[in-house]
Amino acid sequence: MNKGIGYASVGEAIDSFMLIKEASKGLTSGGKPFLTLILRDATGEIEAKLWDATKEDEALFIPEKIIKVSGEVNQFRGKPQLKILAVRPAQPTDDVHVSDFVEKAPVSKDILMDKLTEAIFEMKNPTLQRITRAFIKKYQENLLLYPAATKNHHEYVSGLAHHIVSMLGIARQIHQLYPEVNKDLLYAGIILHDLGKLRELSGMVTTSYTIEGKLLGHIPIMVEEIGLMARELQIEGEEEILILQHLILSHHGKAEWGSPKPPLVREAEILHLIDLMDAKMNMLNRALDKVKPGEFTDRLFAMDNRAFYKPSFEE
Amino acid sequence: MNKGIGYASVGEAIDSFMLIKEASKGLTSGGKPFLTLILRDATGEIEAKLWDATKEDEALFIPEKIIKVSGEVNQFRGKPQLKILAVRPAQPTDDVHVSDFVEKAPVSKDILMDKLTEAIFEMKNPTLQRITRAFIKKYQENLLLYPAATKNHHEYVSGLAHHIVSMLGIARQIHQLYPEVNKDLLYAGIILHDLGKLRELSGMVTTSYTIEGKLLGHIPIMVEEIGLMARELQIEGEEEILILQHLILSHHGKAEWGSPKPPLVREAEILHLIDLMDAKMNMLNRALDKVKPGEFTDRLFAMDNRAFYKPSFEE
Amino acid sequence: MNKGIGYASVGEAIDSFMLIKEASKGLTSGGKPFLTLILRDATGEIEAKLWDATKEDEALFIPEKIIKVSGEVNQFRGKPQLKILAVRPAQPTDDVHVSDFVEKAPVSKDILMDKLTEAIFEMKNPTLQRITRAFIKKYQENLLLYPAATKNHHEYVSGLAHHIVSMLGIARQIHQLYPEVNKDLLYAGIILHDLGKLRELSGMVTTSYTIEGKLLGHIPIMVEEIGLMARELQIEGEEEILILQHLILSHHGKAEWGSPKPPLVREAEILHLIDLMDAKMNMLNRALDKVKPGEFTDRLFAMDNRAFYKPSFEE
Amino acid sequence: MNKGIGYASVGEAIDSFMLIKEASKGLTSGGKPFLTLILRDATGEIEAKLWDATKEDEALFIPEKIIKVSGEVNQFRGKPQLKILAVRPAQPTDDVHVSDFVEKAPVSKDILMDKLTEAIFEMKNPTLQRITRAFIKKYQENLLLYPAATKNHHEYVSGLAHHIVSMLGIARQIHQLYPEVNKDLLYAGIILHDLGKLRELSGMVTTSYTIEGKLLGHIPIMVEEIGLMARELQIEGEEEILILQHLILSHHGKAEWGSPKPPLVREAEILHLIDLMDAKMNMLNRALDKVKPGEFTDRLFAMDNRAFYKPSFEE
Amino acid sequence: MNKGIGYASVGEAIDSFMLIKEASKGLTSGGKPFLTLILRDATGEIEAKLWDATKEDEALFIPEKIIKVSGEVNQFRGKPQLKILAVRPAQPTDDVHVSDFVEKAPVSKDILMDKLTEAIFEMKNPTLQRITRAFIKKYQENLLLYPAATKNHHEYVSGLAHHIVSMLGIARQIHQLYPEVNKDLLYAGIILHDLGKLRELSGMVTTSYTIEGKLLGHIPIMVEEIGLMARELQIEGEEEILILQHLILSHHGKAEWGSPKPPLVREAEILHLIDLMDAKMNMLNRALDKVKPGEFTDRLFAMDNRAFYKPSFEE
Amino acid sequence: MNKGIGYASVGEAIDSFMLIKEASKGLTSGGKPFLTLILRDATGEIEAKLWDATKEDEALFIPEKIIKVSGEVNQFRGKPQLKILAVRPAQPTDDVHVSDFVEKAPVSKDILMDKLTEAIFEMKNPTLQRITRAFIKKYQENLLLYPAATKNHHEYVSGLAHHIVSMLGIARQIHQLYPEVNKDLLYAGIILHDLGKLRELSGMVTTSYTIEGKLLGHIPIMVEEIGLMARELQIEGEEEILILQHLILSHHGKAEWGSPKPPLVREAEILHLIDLMDAKMNMLNRALDKVKPGEFTDRLFAMDNRAFYKPSFEE
Prior knowledge:
GO biological process, one term (chains A, B, C, D, E, F): rRNA 3'-end processing
Order of helices and strands of chain A: EEEHEEHHHHHHHHH
Distance between the termini of chain A: 27 Å
Keywords (chains A, B, C, D, E, F): Exonuclease, Hydrolase, Nuclease
Largest interface: B-C, 45 and 46 residues
Oligomer: homohexamer
GO molecular function (chains A, B, C, D, E, F): exonuclease activity; nucleic acid binding
Protein name (chains A, B, C, D, E, F): 3'-5' exoribonuclease YhaM
Pfam families (chains A, B, C, D, E, F): HD, tRNA_anti-codon
């Protein structure tokens, strides 16, 4: 297995380090205990069965632990399953780290940070520039680590920054084609629109929702943060702040999707469209990358459950 | 006309002071200018026509002015219309005031304030009590003046406070019937739930939406206000604040109705139900008050456009 | 296991009487027969496996039978499962009864009956009082036994009467807060609104839908019953009867929820709101009772599939 | 005007008897009173203006009165309007009757009655035959007079009987093509399905909804009537009665359209489909009859607001 | 097993030829391979387990193969399951054919072809007759073989032709009851409406969707085919062709169901209704045929997931 | 009036040529005839009243005629209205043309044609290039004249070509940002996606829907045209053609919006998004151009009836 578990085929022998994502105990019909593990590396994940698991195994093999595992890829109900032949916890001397086993953005954190800085540098409106810069400073570390979502699109390390930078690329072009667009406002909206996720989501790996994420959601969280930050920067009450809060509030497009107000400012509408377009391109390109010409992808839940066709004439 | 314009019948002669709510200019098919005025007193409103209006009339008879008018109630397209025979602007010596011509809550401001104070006094949780008290103090004056909405329910002077106090009454009973309910949390939620309207709406009379009302709405405005107030009071980060923000955020019940999160805490669900119940009772009782047993009310827009029947056996 | 199966934890030994709710036969991959039983007592239920089941076992262990069972609580796919070590049918000498193993209302039948009688006694309109009393007399026995639903809310013995009595409590308070409400009409509507369920549902235990329940439903059944009873009592044609039928017909609130007419009378609207409020409080309080502060409940299907949070500051 | 007002064209002189359907008073911008009348004969209706109307005119020209009118057809906002030149109330000596001015079914009452009798005669199931016959006897007079609806389809004298007889024609054919269908049940369902309209609607001319029509609707009314009639005929409790009630209850097809239960019996589904088909054919044929090949009809509200095209190749 | 697998009961011994519809490999918890087969004959299908499957078994027992199998019908999770005792592939000398194991229309291909020819013979409009005849000629072979759908209704060999002929029967009667209907247009619409399925579906057995079926669908495919055929026959541009394309385009009734235009011509509306009626009768009659009086059918997915009741009084 | 009627303010005198867009006759309450005209020039339109219109006026002043008109801009019910003082039909010697009075794209036809040619020149796939080129050639004249819609967006002369060229601009950028996108396919889809409108719409001025536009719509028309053209060019059956038809078919995004299949190919999804984005930018920019900073636009019907705010900080 050179390329990673995401590329392993049935029958292949496995002998490598992997991260335990989930672990649960079961009993065979004969009453014997076994463990079902979801293992992952940076390229994908696989279900694995550890038969005849002992109490010690149960205590050792828990989520977020790295293991050295050897075994064979079988098929079970149409899906690949790893039959574990030998397994042990990773040792400090193995020099492996959780961050080696998670998917990352295809662009490095340094480049992402450069692109963000460049966009802020282009901005001319001082109010918009100041508040944007203040947030980048406040959240810099996590912003470069967090995914943009728990699943569906940009659900990998640095996914949030990758999504923002990608959207800034579209915004730059849209501004050239339609010069009426207020670039500063659009840039500020793009950079801040999802920062509430840094409080809505639990972290970089095996991401879940925090309590305030569940009870408030990233949109109201960010609207409030802008209010607090504006007071701190003593720019409270300027119209830019209100409009920026509106951009954040409305960026999901309609009430049913979590925006109590629909976009009512030109740049709010564009922010919503660019967000949609980049999320869709990310999902589509990654799904189509895994199939051959003449085939359909799996159904993509966040694309209305559609399966997409990859034309064969492109070969 | 003893009882007010809301009780005038067709054919009746009118000779009284009224407030101009709206004014617009028109031309007869013969090309002559006239004014269409919407006049009101504390009991209701009526459309009036001032034929052969001069330029001076146009300048004199504008919204928010009080006039002395005599005329006759006619019927036009099934609705009453006032034919103006004589009209003049009110003079300082007439000793009439805008506040005489607007509908008011059936309970006085003093009593409403007492009830609010009493509820806060009942609260035992210090965090919830402190933040509630701080808002009452901050907004006391407008809270006792504003309507709860521009139309449909409690759309009169002190309507907001009347709605809050009425909801507190239900809450007290619900807490007795279901003692599991956290009364402090429910009281705080009720008192604060619509305070964002003090920034969403333009004022007490001929109420319209402010720009921040249109772009953000009273729910996100109030969530942000709680965040800012908590920081001021140095109770930021306490769980009560988060839960209280959730109560405000979710009190419209579902995303389509403006709450990005549905109620996910018991008291949030109850707050939503009590809000609904009091708004509906207010609309129903006022509409049924205007019809006789055996009749149907007009269609009530905010009650899904239903016309309600008043049984005749109640006579 | 002192408190009942609803409180048993994994690893605990069980030795008690339980009622078989469901039983089905399976084959292991080795081709050996086993029985899957759903067992219950008054506090909850658990899945159990009886391995190597004989033909005699299959005949003995069928739904509605009481058994004496000893075994151990294991975990299977995240849910508790009882591994049966020994089992036998209950004997007459064991002196256990089906009614010992089902959930019951937290209020006794006698108290429920007293509360119903008291409400009827308060009524002053003779027509409404007579027909309500006639139905209580006709259905007294089942009314005090039936659940209010097969699942979701008040789904226990005497659940229907408990729901009615609880709603009467809210109605009494609502009438005090809004004295325009016709208390007699509201009381009659509350007491009769769900009596059609006595024909829609099959009984007290392992409740299912009858054929007329499936083809007509409890609402049209009850509208018809009122018509028949009014004829019997020779009060057919009085307006109270029509209005009462309307209250029953409209109490689900809208066509999509089974009411061909929405509430068009004040008390019909209130009946609908009180029904909703009591059903929701019942679901919420019972679900929150099972979780600790700082936790979420399971998703509640009849509450739009929401999981509710129990604040930790309430500790 | 030989053919009737439904065929009059702009510019044509009118001199004939017509029935006043609606009358309302207005004031010109000069303050002079006039009457707006909706006049009709058996072929259609037209709006008419009576300028300079006196108090006597107001008292004379009221709904349900027949008048002799002469005037000219003008066009107003794209619709024909009758300018009244002379008008007088009809005299007893004119020998004109309200029934001359209303639209009637294209088939006589005698033939409709014969067809109903014939269908009942074909039925073999004694329970279904008895109850159907009993209702025909109870309602014979009104059944042959009432429209099937206030508007949209079969909204003319004898419209209800015409609709029933037309549906019986389709049912006979469907039974031949699919012999599994229970003809007796389907016939009984068709004959009774809309009889509740005899209580839901106010009468034959200028039909409106009764109070019980508004509060209960024809479907629950008829389900109840079947229950009462079954008790009278002492066939209460037979399964045919339950199934027949289900057919009535479900014939609108789904909850949103007023059927709390959808069709759950084969003949209930067919009844729903035949009802739909005959109503649609009635609307379509009458609308297409009024346009020329190559033209579109007006938008038909009850056909989802569609305008239908009449192909020109059919000429 | 005389009547076929659709009629086999639990405990019955099986010894017959069957067709493999699906095959998948699994592993027991002990790690031993087995095959899960879906087997079918002309009366129905059953799941079967072949334990201890070898690599040879895997290669031999694949979809579309006929096998000779003996075993016993067991029950597994409430559904019948065949336990295979012996199995071998069919030999040429067995003289069994795939077509023996699939469901067929209850009417022979010859009779279906006669009925189609007869309908075309009745048509008088030369344009409509020519194009209909041309398509019958082009697609004759497949038209008599294909199902009308992959599931739900007429999902058997010759199902498409059976559906068309059945619809023509209804159309003939509708035309007699409503003589305004253009019979030629309706016949042409019925015969052609689903011919696009010959390109949308993959074939007669184990039918799936083709790529053009997935990307275009049978409706746009057939609209295009009519355009191409009209050009070939040099009748392009005649109004009949446009109207016929409209009938095809609109026959699903509304946009959500795949018709970009709703029916806007009388015969288009009727075509839609007849299509619906025949599909529903086919589903209903076949489902009710499998249950006894007093029972409900399984839920029928394409009938809004309803379970239908078969009255017991019909016995 | 230098800038055109779109910029005229109340009280301004008008003396210029205008095109009659609509004309209808009315009667004053005194019974005198007048004409209501909708007049337009290249900047907008206004309602005008011609009082005391003669029969000759009626015959002269009809849609599509150019007139010389002098008058004054009044206000009527809040909207500007032109009071005509003098009017005459335009003469040949006036040298004015219908094309002078209609709105046009802000880019010339020559430039639009160059941009189209350039895009086709960039394409490398011969099949896609050939069919695109063939359509440009077939429809060149109308493609450069037609609007993209009857209202809402690009509803002006050359609007269709302007929309296409604008979309090509976005596509070029999207391809650079996401190089996986097949540019040839996307270009071909963009150029052809709305060509069906050349048959759906009646023409350049006072555009309405043709009969085939109403009965089929531009999407199925274009899918068929591609089929016919592919046969002509002998490239029928190549996968590019199928995919291209899919792009056209799915470009409205979902069934409710007229696409029987949703986008199932990457470029189909992008085509839909770009179409949406350019249409929205066109509507937004034109609406915001008409208001001042700090104001809201009128409600934009095709933007979900939203009124957009123009921030004042942009001044």
